[in-house]
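Q: What would this chain look like folded?
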Amino acid sequence: MSSNRNHKTYLKSLNITAAFLAAVMFVIFPACSGKDKNLAEAISENDTLPSMTSLGVTTLISDSGITRYKVVAEEWLIHDKKNPPYWAFEKGVYLEKFDTLFRIDASIKADTAYYHEKKKLWELKGNVQILSQRGDKFQTNLLFWDEKKEKVYSDQFIQIEQEDKIIKGYGFESNQDLTEYIIKNTTGVFTVEDTAPAPVQPADSTKNDSIKTDRKL
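A: My prediction, written as structure tokens:
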């Protein structure tokens, strides 16, 4: 009899303990779940923020121990937590590219620029202006510079001013030294002295036209 009473007391105590644990778990887990959600949101939000923000930048960038670029920018943001990571120059950028003897190969200005680190690809947007070592001037609104392939290209309208003439067209490919390039879908070629440039034709009406320019130094 005593044994049965003790067994019932044990079961009653066990049930009370189980009920208490269940109540505690019911209170704690939703709270933890909410915290985890907030934490996940915070982590997600932090991932969208740049890991580095620099203002009023003037710096030199090296590649394989060789100084290759000078960068001047009002704001430089590095997003290395993004996949893929990239740099952002959303308030404009001025670049100087150097050869192995630290001579300026080209200078580049753009309203906005992004550098995709893994691809080693520059994406230049808005009022892009390039001055090559030869003195040729390039103007477009979108330009890509692939460091791995050593190639510069665009599918947008581009104007190239050489010493004696100006060439306009849609689509452009060049070596990264800007000494040998092809202009696709040309819309006008005229001498610098011309006071009335040739009218720009629709791109599709000249889609088979192209000009290859060899500007080797």
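The two ends are 110 Å apart (CA to CA).
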